[in-house]
Amino acid sequence: MTMPREESNHAIITVIGRDQIGIIAWVSGRLAEYRVNILDISQTILNEFFTMIMVVDLEPSALKLDVLASTLEQEGDNKGLQVKVQHEDIFKFMHRI
Amino acid sequence: MTITFAREEIQQTINMIHKENLDIRTITMGISLLDCSSDDIGKMEKKIYDKITKNAGRLVEVGEQISARYGIPIINKRVSVTPIAIAAAQMNVDEMVRIAKTLNRAAREIGINFVGGFSALVQKGFTSGDLALIDAIPQALSETEFVCSSVNIGTTKAGINMDAVLKMGNVILKSAQLTSDNDGIAAAKLVVFCNAPEDNPFMAGAFHGVGEPDTVINVGVSGPGVVAKVVKKYPEADFSELSNLIKQTAFKITRMGELIARAASKALDVPFGIIDLSLAPTPAIGDSVAEILENMGLERCGTHGTTAALALLNDAVKKGGAMASSHVGGLSGAFIPVSEDAGMVRAVEEGALTLDKLEAMTCVCSVGLDMIALPGDVSAETVSAIIADEAAIGMINKKTTAVRVIPAIGKKAGDRVEFGGLLGGAPVIAVHPYSSKLFVHRGGRIPAPIISLTN
């Protein structure tokens, strides 16, 4: 079993909540501000519920993952959105061997 | 290179954590105290305090960092130590109590939830340290907050020490009496084992075995809610399919434990020991092992078929989990604590689940009679006889069994006790009214069983 290398600084951002104008603008604006690079993005609306999944690279950023997570989670909360930022390894470990 | 994930995969992981109560139940650092021995109690207290605070000083901080990085809750950070009856074999009863208080001080200083290892291994007989420690247990547990205690009274290889069984009935009752204002909480921090594992990260039974390295990281995963959801989703699945579904789920849960264990081991520069892939319920709704069994098609946990359902669950969890981790150990299986599992509590309240059925279930689950409130007028001999039955199941079946029962002083069957937090609350369960006194007072040892002629 090969273990993922620790060097990866990729995170998965998920945003779930009632659809409203400017969700992606807000997230991507914040990420640009913190110099976090977006690698992949997908978004759908199901029954008026907005779901976005974003793969980002924190390498260029000075910000730690946990700080980014708490900032976005708190701001998202104020907008009625559930925002999670998690290191990609948790998904890799669970779904890839 | 970026690995892309399917939307469903990401959604599934997030649902498991946020809707189905998937969490890492504990990161437990094992610490050897074998190098802390001294004839002088003051020196020994200082050595123990220094060793724990030095080695585990960053445990809570690192646990919180890892939790934030991966977005998964890590509920407990704990420390287990060398059985104190071994590390402090020269101490008397009062000194043993002082050592328990030292462990408690160290635990408070570093902010952990529990410290385990106020323990003795007496399957074949007692040393003077074992006797001092056992006598010290009621006072030690009632005057400390974080200390957990365990005593191993039998093994498949050694048989059952019935003198120790008799003693432990008294110790459990006395522990409950000393903390009767808090529903006997001291007894909830005390477990009596047969075939105790030396690398178990779960409390109250965690201790750091003498075959372990100086320090080690063991991780306990959880996730009954995730399994319950999967079982519920496939009501038509036959048992082969059901077993596979549980195996796949256990695999995913255990992978998460493996990831966290590796991260913690690296951050703390402490070797990784084992993952304990137990399904450990909490009082939260939807985090129940009983619910899994009921989702398999039983109207209530405890009815006919419950033992078979639990056997399938326990085995499938082990199979799935064993594939997911490089080192599996500890207790690994399904826990059936009553007060910590809302489904078990309901089953007892409705009369579906009795002490006798729980005993049968322990033949196929990973541990034993756990977090069960007994009537306050139960005799020490009856508690001892309950321990003897449970130890016999473990000894003959070559598995770990344990007893953690709490005599509810001043209460009778049907009354309720509250322990709070993860320990939950439970109805007091009835015991048999007939005496076992003459039996448990015989003393001596039940010989180790023959291991051929297995029928």
Q: Which descriptors apply to this entry?
A:
heterodimer, A: 97 residues, alpha+beta, Alpha-Beta Plaits, four-stranded antiparallel sheet, 3 helices, 33% helix, disordered N terminus, B: 455 residues, alpha/beta, Anaerobic Ribonucleotide-triphosphate Reductase Large Chain, eleven-stranded mixed sheet, 17% strand
Radius of gyration of chain B: 21 Å
Uncertain runs of chain A are 1-5
Q: What's the helix-strand series of chain A?
A: EHEEHEH
Radius of gyration of chain A: 14 Å
| Proportion of residues in extended strands of chain B | 15-25%
Strand residue percentage of chain A: 35-45%
Structural class of chain B: alpha/beta
Look up the CATH topology of chain A.
Alpha-Beta Plaits
Helix content of chain A: 25-40%
Largest sheet of chain B: 11 strands, mixed
CATH class of chain A: Alpha Beta
Question: How many helix segments of chain B?
Answer: 16
Number of domains of chain A: 1
Concise summary:
Chain A has 3 helices and 4 strands. Chain A is α+β, with helices and mostly antiparallel strands and 97 residues long.
Describe the protein.
Chain A: This is UPF0237 protein M8H41_01410. Chain A: It holds the Pfam family ACT_6. The complex is a heterodimer of chains A (97) and B (455). Chain A is an alpha+beta fold and 97 residues long. Chain A has a single domain (10-95), classed as 2-Layer Sandwich (Alpha-Beta Plaits), CATH 3.30.70. Helix content of chain A is 33%, strand content 36%. Chain A is built from three helices and four strands; from the N terminus they run βαββαβα. In chain A, strands 2-3-1-4 form a four-stranded antiparallel β-sheet, with helices on both faces. In chain A, strand 2 (37-46) and strand 3 (49-57) form a beta hairpin. The longest helix of chain A has 14 residues, at 65-78. The N and C termini of chain A lie close together (7 Å). Mean pLDDT of chain A is 88; it is low at 1-5. In chain B, helix 3 crosses helix 10, helix 9 (224-233) runs parallel beside helix 11 and helix 10 (239-268) crosses helix 12. Chain B is α/β, with parallel strands linked by helices and 455 residues long. The mean pLDDT of chain B is 94. Chain B has a domain at 24-194: Anaerobic Ribonucleotide-triphosphate Reductase Large Chain, CATH 3.20.70.20. In chain B, the strands form two sheets. In chain B, strands 1, 2, 3, 4, 5, 6, 7, 8, 9, 10 and 13 form an eleven-stranded mixed β-sheet that branches. In chain B, strands 11-12 form a two-stranded antiparallel ribbon. The termini of chain B are far apart. Chain B has helices spanning 7-18, 41-56, 59-70, 84-87, 93-110, 128-142, 162-178, 185-188, 224-233, 239-268, 289-295, 306-324, 342-349, 355-361, 380-397, 437-440, and strands at 24-31, 74-81, 114-121, 147-155, 159-161, 190-194, 215-221, 272-276, 369-375, 401-408, 416-418, 425-427, 445-446. In chain B, helix 15 (380-397) links the parallel strand 9 (369-375) and strand 10 (401-408).
